[in-house]
Design brief:
- It is a single chain.
- The protein has 290 residues and is an alpha/beta fold.
- It has helices spanning 6-13, 17-22, 54-57, 69-78, 92-107, 119-125, 156-162, 175-179, 220-228, 246-258, 270-274, and strands at residues 14-15, 29-34, 50-52, 86-90, 113-116, 168-171, 203-204, 238-241, 264-266, 283-284, 288-289.
- A five-stranded parallel β-sheet has the order 1-5-4-2-3. A four-stranded parallel β-sheet has the order 7-6-8-9, with helices on one face. A two-stranded antiparallel ribbon has the order 10-11.
Length: 290
C-alpha cells in the first residue's frame, strides 16, 4: 500500500477548473471531453477541446473490447496530441466516461494525463468559457507504447478465481443493482446481462459516494475511510466492477490514483459479461447464493 503524500498524488492526477481556465490557450495541453451523453459536447465545450465518442472511438467496432493500440494512437494524433502533450479529460456525470478514458490511456502506457476535477458540471458552475466552434489542431505525433499494463485490468477468470480469496471485489453499482432488483439505472442504455445480482463476496460501495455535491472528489481522508469501512484498505488486491466498466473506472481512479493503492484492477467486462456467464456463481439480496 502506498504511503505517498495525498496532496502530491492529487496534483499528479487532477487539475482544477482554475488551472483549466489558465491553460485553455496552452499549446502543450489538450482538453478531451468524453460524455455519457454523446451529444453534450456539441451544445458547448471548452475552447479547443476535442470531443471523444465513447461508443465509437473508445471501443472496438466489431469485438466487445477496448479500442486497439493503433486506433487509439490515431485518435490521439487526430486530436493534436504529441508525446509531451498533457492530456486533460473531463465529461458529464461526474467524469464517468472521462475516467474510463483515463483508465484506458493509463492501461496503454500513457502517463501525461489528468482528470479535470468535477467534470463538465463544475466547468459550467464555475463559468468557464464554452463554445460550439469546432477545434482545429495540427496533427499530433504521439506514439502509444506497444506494451499494455495488464496489472491495471481484470478479466473474468481472475474475477472467478478471486471468489472466496483475500482479493477484494468491489461492486460500485447502485444498491438496487447490487441486490439484483434492477438491471441498470433507468436513464442508462440497457446493456443487459442474463441474470441480476453480484459476484459472491463482493462489497457494495457505490461510485457516487466518492464525490461531493459539486461533482469533485471528496477529501482523501474521507475516501480512505469510506472504503476501509468495507474492508478495502489497499493491503490486498482490489478488483472493481460495475455494469460496463465506466463507473468502476471512476472507483479505480479513486483507489489507485488518489489513495495510492498499488494493486487495483478494473474489470471492464463487468456485470454485462459476468452476469451472462454459464455456471458462474451469483449472489442476490443479502448474499445468499443463487
Amino acid at each position: 500500500m502506498s504511503v505517498a503524500d495525498p496532496t502530491t498524488r492529487q496534483n499528479a492526477v487532477l487539475v482544477t477548473t482554475e488551472w483549466a481556465r489558465a491553460h485553455l490557450d496552452d499549446p502543450a495541453v489538450r482538453f478531451l471531453e468524453v460524455d455519457v451523453d454523446t451529444s453534450a459536447y456539441d451544445s458547448g465545450h471548452l475552447p479547443g477541446a476535442v470531443g471523444i465518442n465513447w461508443k465509437t472511438q473508445l471501443t472496438d467496432r466489431l469485438l466487445r473490447d477496448l479500442v486497439s493500440r493503433d486506433d487509439l494512437e490515431r485518435l490521439l494524433r487526430d486530436a493534436g496530441v504529441n508525446d509531451d502533450t498533457r492530456i486533460v479529460l473531463y465529461g458529464d456525470n461526474n467524469n464517468w466516461f472521462a475516467a474510463w478514458a483515463y483508465w484506458q490511456l493509463r492501461y496503454h502506457g500513457i502517463d501525461n494525463v489528468r482528470l479535470l476535477d468535477g467534470g463538465r458540471a463544475k466547468v459550467e458552475a464555475d463559468g468557464l468559457p464554452l463554445t460550439t466552434d469546432a477545434p482545429s489542431h495540427p496533427a499530433g505525433s504521439i506514439t502509444v507504447p506497444a506494451q499494455t499494463r495488464e496489472e491495471l485490468r481484470a478479466y473474468r477468470q481472475q474475477v472467478l478465481d478471486g471468489i472466496g480469496t483475500a482479493r477484494h471485489l468491489v461492486d460500485v453499482r447502485s444498491p438496487e443493482e447490487y441486490r439484483g432488483e434492477l438491471s441498470a439505472p433507468a436513464h442508462l442504455p440497457q446493456e443487459a446481462a442474463q441474470r441480476r445480482g453480484h459476484v459472491p463476496g463482493a462489497v457494495n460501495v457505490p461510485w457516487s459516494q466518492a464525490v461531493a455535491e459539486d461533482g469533485t472528489f471528496k477529501p482523501v481522508d474521507q475516501l480512505r475511510e469510506l472504503y476501509a469501512s468495507q474492508g478495502v484498505d489497499g493491503s490486498e488486491e482490489v478488483v472493481a466492477y460495475c455494469r460496463i466498466g465506466e463507473r468502476s473506472s471512476h472507483t479505480w481512479f479513486v483507489l489507485h490514483e488518489l489513495l495510492g493503492y498499488d494493486n487495483v484492477r478494473n474489470y471492464d467486462g463487468s456485470w454485462t459479461e459476468y452476469g451472462s456467464l454459464v455456471g458462474a456463481p451469483i449472489e442476490t439480496g443479502d448474499g445468499s447464493a443463487n
